[in-house]
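Homework help thread (please don't just give me the answer)

Our assignment gives two proteins as sequence + structure token strings and asks us to describe the second one. The first is just a warm-up. Here they are:
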Amino acid sequence: MKKTFYLLSAVLCAVGMMAGCKGGGTSVELEEAGMPRELAERTPTEADSLSQKEMPEIPFYEDPILPEGPIDTTGLDTMTFIFCEIDAEFPGSEDSLNAFLHRNIHYPKDAKDKKIEGTVYLTFIIEKDGSISNIRVLRSPSDLLSQEAIRLVKAMPKWKPATQYGYAVRQQNNLPIKFFLDKIK
């Protein structure tokens, strides 16, 4: 409530200054500038201005990522991160992941016959030991393609786990797997 009042006061002050440039900033001019009449006729009070004493001091950290002192690692064992200092990585690189998917993908015969294609979007957790768990389909054009995408992720080798504050942590990862008929030989 207080922040809203101060923001409103700042806006009123800016509008008053603009109207003042036109010739004095009377309530009629402020009303013409778009300010409601009851606010335009209001007189400033002590609460409208902040003194330096009332302004809170904001702490400054040399390194905003790691404040000084010991790091509290409570809960790192059970938390699942989306963003980490160092993300989980497929063994090798992203190119290795693409090569693995290309080598191991088997287009379902029924999906071929029905000419079903598209992208299956999966999400899964990379555990602290690099294993994969909690595989879920976010979006898919077909259950047949979903089953193949899940099979592919289950067949992956262990990933290099994500790290936060130097500790291995669980990380959620999203992966799109594309199925297109014209790329099948």
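The one we have to describe:
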Amino acid sequence: MEKEIPIGLQILRAIRKIIRRTSEHSRTVGQSGVTIPQMLCLKALAERSREERVTVAMVANDVQLSTPTVSRILDRLEKAGYLLRERSTSDRRKVFVTLTAEGMDRIDSLPQPLHEQFLGRLNKLDPIERLGLLHAIERIVELMDAVDIDASPVLTLEPEVGARITLTHDDDE
């Protein structure tokens, strides 16, 4: 007869699976030559640029990261040839960002972000079930003493802030 696994360990195992899936997705995205925060900035820029001229602050707001962090991310993307920056002639503090053709091609080759996959599946659930999941996970956050931890609603391992990142080009293919 098999010994029953205590519920606490089952919950911890489920949490570990979520962490591992997030890590796996980060590696998959990284193999495409960009990090998750870089991918999110590219996608935010693509979505916004259809409507208006896009500033660094607008991208930062969309990806829920600080403007200085997004500015560093955009530096790397600009060096890789994925975007161009142009300082506003009317307000020198504003910098407009535009995707290059290479940036648009890169976006088309990126996988769907994990949080988008999750939200698509979550939204198919009954609203009562979604609310139950929210309450349960909020209680787990409390039990893990993580209530005061600030977190974006994007599933990433968050290495971007001080990380050194190497972007690859597809010129070798």
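TA reply:
I won't write it for you, but here's a hint about the kind of observation we're looking for: Strands lie at 54-55, 83-87, 95-99.
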